[in-house]
Input
Amino acid sequence: MRKVIASVLAASIVALAGCSTAKETTPKTGEQTPAKPVELSFYFPVAVGGAAANALEAMVKEFNTANPNIKVTGNFSGNYTDTMTKVQASIQGGAPVDSAILLATDVYTLLDQKAIVAVDELAKADKDGAEYLGDFLPALMLNSKVDGKLWSVPFQRSVPVLFWNKETFTKNGLKDAPKNWDELVSSAKTLTKDGNWGVEIPSDGNPSWIFSSFSIQAGKSVVNENGTEVYLNTPENEKGIQFILDLAKTNKVMPAGVIKWGDAPNDFIAGKTAMIYHTTGSIGLLKSKMDPAKIGVAPMPAGVKPGAPTGGGNLYVFKTTPEKQAAAWKFVRFMTEPERVAQWSVTTGYIAASNKAWATKTMKDAVAAFPGYAVAKDALANADRELATHNNQQILKAYGDELQAIVNGTKDVKTALKTAQENATKILAPFKK
Output
């Protein structure tokens, strides 16, 4: 069956490659007319500002110019949640999108809907398919592999990191970013003065991504390898969340209550906080708004061990027709060419997802000018998989609601995590093998 699929896809790609010069003969008149291009819809979210959206739209335009036999229509569809909602609506309506950037963690939901095509099957149509897939950074593939197959390609990827203001540190007698939790508290106490905070950790919406980092650092991930079980009510998770709370309530180095995702980088730019936890995808925004020489980037300070979950979006190809799937795969390959990936990383701050991208002059020059780009790549050595399960949106809401209650002070950590675990266990019960 796999050979048949590969043969169909290979034939489709060969056919597409010739479409730019192919002619259709009209039976009635014998006139030669250009072949109609394959039309593809592409949905993408942008979580960190307009520059990324502009860069994506430019790439779509570049692809269309280079491939007149294919026409990709890009649709900026809001944040990740908005984009997933629109993609699911297209699936349920019987006219699925052709390609989309969605969270790597959406894989189980899309598989349960039988909506996506395995990219390792698509890659069999390419002579260099195995080499191409093998070039992606291994940590960024952790959430892509399910049941022995790869279901998406890393693109808009990140890990949470610590941004620190080098100038503010120097003025307060500090030299380097904190390397562990104790150093974080000590540095933040020194930096909290004159109405400014030492550190900010976003906690609005669904803070599970950054919050789960602290559980990993305390010694245990919050999810298993096959998306059927979560570990929310554990001593490690309780310890990590309590540490976050204590930064505000006990140590008084962080604002109490909810800190909005978008407010943290803005406060950092304005000098209202000396450190923030945020996505590497914010590098581009920060560099555009402040002197890059002031921006320090460091791995998240370690607890009993270093670590953080990978995050961000992957490129998916949806089940449509062989012709459209082949065209969508060609688009995915175009978007992930090394030079293009390198430029995307430099523009946005997202991690360049392949080894060949890191070997480009573009990436090497960028790291030489701003070493912070390389921090995220180095942090991948200690990265873990992100919270991804079947019915993932329900799990994230169940957990996120309890985290919000903790941050707002309406529930204590033990009670909230117990409730989160009970709710998550019920949601995942149908998928337990």
